[in-house]
Amino acid sequence: MVNVAPSEARKRLAKMALGIVMQSVLFIRAIPYVTAQLSTYGVNFLKRPVVWMALGVHSALLILPAVDLSAPKLEEVIETETEEDVSIEAVSLSDILAPTEPVPQPPPEAAPPPEAAPPPVAAIAPPVLTEVPEQLEEIIEEQDITQNEEFEEELENEFEEEEPQSFAFDPAQQSALHSSLSQFLGASSEGTSNFDITAEWMGIDPTNSINMRFRAKDIENVIDPAAFFTADSISGGTYLPLPQATFKQIARNIDLVSREGLGQALVNAGMSQQDEGTYGGHPFLGVYGADGHPVNYISLIDLKGTTLVFVWADDPRAPGS
């Protein structure tokens, strides 16, 4: 039996179909010519040898594509199969019937033993000094001594800075200030009106209940009466000034007293004032001369219509005053 590969069979079929198509085309193209010859010559046309030669050639062309001249002959296929060497291996019947021994499987490889974990590293505790070396003790002692000396020096410097400069109040300047205050403190800016009503405060009659009620009403505006009035007058309700202060009551509000009366008095005396904060809860002013040294200190107390003026010869805030 001749085995033909599928690819070769497809090629042959393609060639055959191509030949049939070509012959059909040639035959169709020849029909008009044959029809013309028949209509011209009739049956006598078939008597011509050329016609039969053409028919034979066309028939041969139709038959030839069906024959595959490239296919191998049967003899060649047989000879090829016989010439091939076929190796035959002799097998004994006992070998075929003998039971097959199972092939021993190799024993499974033993798993390697797990690696032993490294022993835990014990934390090394830092060494604890139970005794301080002698050199370290000397260094600590030297540092303590140095720090103590520096601290003592700082304290001495602070005390030296805080100590007020020692100076003596000038009685001449104080007298000039008092004279100027008497002239301008109770006067208006024109110097004509007199607002000094100190005599009314100092001459209060403790038996006059109406005056005592007015005095008590005025004292409600004083934050710390003990800083300005004597203890006996406070207990008696008259509230007379301390002896170390020159006292004035001016029938003007505190702003006019500070700006006009006191301001003009200081300008006239050639002095200036500085705000020193408060004393007894009320404004406290320092009066300074041209040399920059304090001359007097002044306290102003607002009684809501009148103003109390205390002129201190020394600083009442100083201890022992």
SSE arrangement, N to C: HHHHHHHHHEHEEEE
Number of helices: 10
Shape: elongated
**Termini distance?**
152 Å
Question: What is the average of the pLDDT values?
Answer: 75
Number of strands: 5
Main sheet properties: 5 strands, antiparallel
- Low-pLDDT ranges: 161-166
Structural class category: alpha+beta
User: What level of helicity do the residues show?
Assistant: 40-55%
Assess the beta-strand content as a share of residues: 5-15%
Oligomer: single chain
What is the rounded Rg? 73 Å
- Order of strands in the sheet with most strands: 1-5-4-3-2
Describe this structure in words.
The protein has 321 residues and is of the alpha+beta class. The protein has ten helices and five strands. The protein has a five-stranded antiparallel sheet. A hairpin with a 2-residue loop joins strand 2 and strand 3. Helix 6 crosses helix 10. The longest helix is centred in the N-terminal third of the chain and has 36 residues. The chain starts with 5 loop residues before the first helix and ends in a 9-residue tail after the last strand.
